[in-house]
Specification:
mainly alpha, three-stranded antiparallel β-sheet, 15 helices, about 50% helix
C-alpha cells in the first residue's frame, strides 16, 4: 500500500458504527470513495469519483464559494483569517448554496434575507457582523469576477459598535494586569504597549529580530510581506532588558525554554483578568495596540511613520486612529501644538 495525498478527499466517521468513510468533496453531491485508504482500489475509486463528480454549478452560490476558495484573494489571506473564513463559508454554503448568484442582484429582495440570516447570531453582535463580513467578501469577489453587479452587503448597519475611541488602557489598568499576571505575561503586555505588535507577532518575536536601534519583524497579518520597524526607545529597551534570554524566542514561560503558545496565553490571560478584578471592563488585549498607536499619534508621528513602525498600511493606521484616538485627546494635542507655535512666535517678537 502506498501513501498518496489526494486533493479534495474528506473523512467522515459514521456515528453509529464508528466506521470512517471517505468522500470526494464536502458539500451536497460529495462522491463516496471505496477501498482502504492508499490502496490501489482506493486510488482507482478516487479517479472514477473525480471523473464522475457532478460539475460545480457556477450559477449558484455554492459554485461561487468554490471559485473563491481557489482564488488568490482567498489563499493570500493570513492562515488564521483563512481558517476563520472557511468555517463561515461552510455555513454560507449550507444556507445560501442553492441560491442563484443572480438573486443577489435583487437588493430589495435579498437584503431582508441577509438580515434574517445575520440575526440568527445577534446575541453575539461581533459574530453576527463577522458573518456578514465573510459573505460580503464572497460577494465582492463575485462582483470582481463579473458575476454580480453590486454587493448587497454594502450599507448594512453593523450590530456591534466597533468604535472604541477613548477605550484605551490607562496606566492603572496596565499596572493592575501586570501585577496579577505571571512575569512572562506581564512582559508580553508591556511589549504590546510599547511596540503595537499583534499577539501572533509577539509570540514569534525572536532575539534575532532586535537590532541595535530597532526591532525589525515581518508581520503575520501581511503574510510576511510587510516589515514592522520599531525604534528601540527607552521604555521598550527597559522591557527587553528585563526579559531573560532562554532561547531564540523572546517570550518563554517562566523558568523554562518552552515558547509561549496561543492557548497558553489565552488561559493565563483569563486567570490574570479575574485575579486583577477587571470584571466587566470593556478592554481587550488588542486594545493595547490602540494604546501604542495613540501614544505615537500624540507624539506627533505622521500616519506614514506610524505605518512603518507597526508594519501596517497607512489606511489601517487611519482606521485605528479613528477607532482608538478619542476626540478629546486629539483636541488636547492640537491645543498643545498651537500653544507651542504661539510660544515660538512670542519668542521671535
Amino acid at each position: 500500500m502506498v501513501t498518496v495525498k489526494l486533493k479534495g478527499v474528506n473523512a467522515v466517521r459514521d456515528k453509529r458504527t464508528g466506521e470512517i468513510r471517505y468522500y470526494l468533496g464536502r458539500e451536497k453531491g460529495a462522491v463516496r470513495i471505496h477501498g482502504e485508504k492508499g490502496s490501489a482500489e482506493f486510488i482507482a475509486s478516487y479517479q472514477e469519483a473525480l471523473a464522475n463528480r457532478r460539475p460545480t454549478d457556477t450559477g449558484k452560490i455554492r459554485g461561487l464559494v468554490t471559485l473563491y476558495k481557489a482564488s488568490p484573494e482567498y489563499n493570500d489571506l493570513a492562515d488564521s483569517t483563512r481558517r476563520q473564513r472557511a468555517r463561515w463559508l461552510d455555513k454560507i454554503t449550507i444556507y445560501y448554496g442553492d441560491f442563484p448568484i443572480a438573486a443577489f442582484d435583487r437588493h430589495d429582495r435579498i437584503k431582508p434575507i441577509i438580515r434574517k440570516w445575520r440575526n440568527q447570531y445577534r446575541d453575539t453582535p461581533r459574530t453576527a457582523d463577522y458573518a456578514v463580513q465573510v459573505l460580503s467578501a464572497l460577494l465582492s469577489f463575485g462582483v470582481n469576477e463579473g458575476k454580480l453587479g453590486a454587493n448587497p452587503c454594502i450599507g448594512l448597519k453593523q450590530l456591534y459598535d466597533s468604535n472604541r475611541a477613548d477605550i484605551v488602557w490607562s496606566e492603572s489598568d496596565i499596572e493592575r494586569m501586570t501585577k496579577a499576571a505571571p512575569p512572562w505575561l506581564s512582559r508580553m503586555i508591556l511589549l504590546a504597549v510599547n511596540t503595537g505588535l499583534r499577539r501572533g507577532d509577539l509570540l514569534k518575536l525572536c532575539w534575532s529580530h532586535i537590532g541595535s536601534d530597532e526591532i525589525e519583524i515581518r508581520t503575520g497579518k501581511s503574510r510576511d510581506k510587510i516589515k514592522a520597524l520599531i525604534p528601540l526607545h527607552a521604555d521598550l529597551e527597559a522591557v527587553l532588558a528585563s526579559i531573560p534570554k532562554r532561547g531564540p524566542l523572546v517570550l518563554t514561560y517562566d523558568d523554562s525554554r518552552r515558547p509561549v503558545t496561543s492557548n497558553g496565553f489565552t488561559s493565563a490571560w483569563r486567570r490574570a483578568w479575574a485575579d486583577a478584578g477587571m470584571g466587566d471592563a470593556d478592554l481587550h488585549f488588542n486594545d493595547l495596540r490602540g494604546t501604542a498607536i495613540t501614544r505615537l499619534y500624540l507624539a506627533e508621528f505622521s500616519e506614514r511613520e506610524i505605518a512603518e513602525i507597526v508594519g501596517w498600511t497607512e489606511e489601517s493606521v487611519k482606521r485605528i486612529i479613528h477607532r482608538y484616538v478619542g476626540r478629546a485627546a486629539a483636541v488636547r494635542n492640537r491645543i498643545e501644538r498651537i500653544n507651542q507655535i504661539k510660544k515660538g512666535t512670542d519668542f521671535a517678537k
